[in-house]
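1st attempt posting a full record on here, be nice pls
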Amino acid sequence: MKKVPVCLLVLLLSLCGCDRNNDISETRFVLDTVATLTADCDKALLDEAFSLCSDYEKLLSRTVKNSDVYTLNRTSGFTEISDDTLKIIDRSLYYSKISDGKFDITVCPVSELWDFKNQVIPSRDEIAEALKNVDYQSIEIDKNKVNLNGKKIDLGSLAKGYIADRLKEYFAEKGVGEGIINLGGNVVVFGRDYKIGIKRPFYDDEISAVLVLRDKSAVTSGIYERFIKSDGKIYHHIIDPATGYGVQNELLSVTVIGDSSFDCDALSTVCMLTGTARGLEIIENTENTEAVFIDKEENLTLTSGLIQKNDTITLK
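the predicted structure (as C-alpha cells):
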C-alpha cells in the first residue's frame, strides 16, 4: 500500500459533523496513511480495531516482508495465499475486465518508477521497459493459489476499502451502534446520519459539496492526491497502463458511494481511468452505487440516485 502525503489524505474526504458525547475517537498512522476511528465503544475495542489494520497490512502490503503480496511478487509458479488476498485479487480481475484493462493491479513496475515524494519523473525508456511487464491477463487463479507469471502486483487501490469493510464487520460483531471509519479518505459511516465533505481538488481547505450518508461508504480518487508539476504540466499517480503516465482526461476527482468500501475503492479508480462517460455507465449498472464526478472546470456530474440541493448531496 502506497504512502500518500498525510495532509492530502486527511482532506480527501473531510468529515463534517459532530460526535456524540459517548463516542471516542483516535487517529493513528497505519496502512501507510492517517487513519481515524470514531465509535460508540470503549478504548479497548478501538485498540483492537487498529490492531486489525496492522494485521491486514502484514498480509496485503507489497513492501512488508513475507506478506502475501511480497511473496507473490518474488515467487514463480502457483503460490498459496490467504482467503483475504485471494478475494482482493479475484475482484481486481473483474474490475480490469469491465474497464477494458484500464484498471490493472500489475501496473506496479510502472508505478514504482514514479517518485512523487522526491518529485522524480522517470524517463520514457524506463516507462516503456516497465510496461512490458504489465498485463492483468497473466494472473492465474487455481482454488487458493495464484500464479503471477512473472508480473508484480500492488493492491493499494483496493486494500484500504477491503479493510474498512472488515472493520465495519468487527464493530457490528461487538455491538457498536454508530461510528466513522476513515482510512486515509476511505470512509465508512454507520448508525446515524453523517456529513462528509468532498474536497475541492487542489484546494486544501475547501470543499466542493457535502454528502449526507448513513450506513454507507464513500471513497474519492483524484489527480491532486499525489502529483509532480513540471513545466506547467501535472504528472499524477493514477497511472494509465496503456501509457505509463497519469491518465489524461477531463476529470479531477470521482467520489463513489455504496454499501461496500472495497468496491467503492476500486470503482473510484476505475472511473478516474475510464472518464466521465464510461464511468457513469459503469456506476449506473452497479447496484446500490452512486458517484460524484468533478471535471477540470469544477462542474459536478451526479449519477441518477443522487440529488443535490445547494451544496448538499443526498441519496434519493
